[in-house]
Amino acid sequence: MKAKIIDGKAIAEQMQAELAKKVEKFREEYGDVPGLAVILVGEDPASQIYVRNKHRACLKAGMRSEVLKLDENITEEELFGYIDKYNTNPHINGLLVQFPVPKHLSQQRIIERISPEKDVDGLSLDNAGKLFTGGKGLVSCTPKGIIELIKRSGIEISGKHAVVVGRSNLVGKPVAMLLLKENATVTICHSKTKNLAQITSQADILVVAVGKPECILADHIKPGAIVIDVGTSRVDGKLRGDVAFDEAVHKAGYITPVPGGVGPMTITMLLYNTLEAAEMQNKKQSLTN
Ligand code: NAP
After folding, report:
1. Which residues sit with their C-beta closer than 6 Å to ligand 1?
2. Which CATH architecture does the domain made up of 31-116 adopt?
3. Residue to substitute in 141, 190, 262 for testing ligand 1 pocket (most ligand atoms within 8 angstroms of CB)
């Protein structure tokens, strides 16, 4: 039996159409639309494409979008000056600096400079801490998108054994926390894990975020499992996932393709986080008035 393909592109498009309606409702209630600002430092070609895609998606959903392009030699203090301005700008509800940044700038210090209320990438210690302790904060976009993909495919997470391969702060750890929050029993694997296939082949839900093309084979997969492939690597100019799709598709019950699986959900969740941030900020504002 062939696995059902989880069509991330279609789910993302549907969610963005739903979001446009939510943005309209927000505008009626607050007389303004949510706003996202993206700071791009330097000329990295891949980053330029990501930023352009975020800008377009934002405008399509009826939100405000600002892109600030800064010289690659900017000092950290100068960059912080721009971040501080956006932190206090009431028309900007979400703020992110596109990574990677030039080596003389500290990614962690940049993340911590952004107001947690506007940290729509959900990477700050404040938001990560809330995720790990059950508080209400902004959750990083790719992990949040993975949960949406699973739920919108009609799959129950509660009670399932979820195995996450990868323990990065960006994907592995937060997606493990979200799966735990959904009452899955969660196992996390990494580069030092012994007998990986023995563990992954017990997974009802297998999330792979490694960054090594086709490192997960059919032998790693339990028959009928839900396989979410987060990996994106360029091989001979083509985008490849971490899962050997052609063989895995005959073993899994559900599987995400690369491209067209997790990828389209990431920008979608960034837009949802911007709306969520705007709602939280407006509610807080009305409480203090
Ligand atoms: P990362 O920070 O490099 O983390 C990779 C993780 O994989 C690490 O925890 C590492 O373990 C583990 N790992 C490496 N080799 C392994 C092996 N042989 N067996 C088991 N685990 C192994 O990467 P990331 O930021 O999480 O991203 C992972 C992939 O997802 C990349 O391809 C990235 O491009 C992609 N991604 C896609 C999206 C999207 O929107 N589609 C978003 C984010 C990331 P150690 O901790 O022990 O080193």
Report:
1. 142, 165-168, 170-172, 189-193, 196, 209-212, 215, 230-233, 262-263, 266
2. 3-Layer(aba) Sandwich (3.40)
3. 190
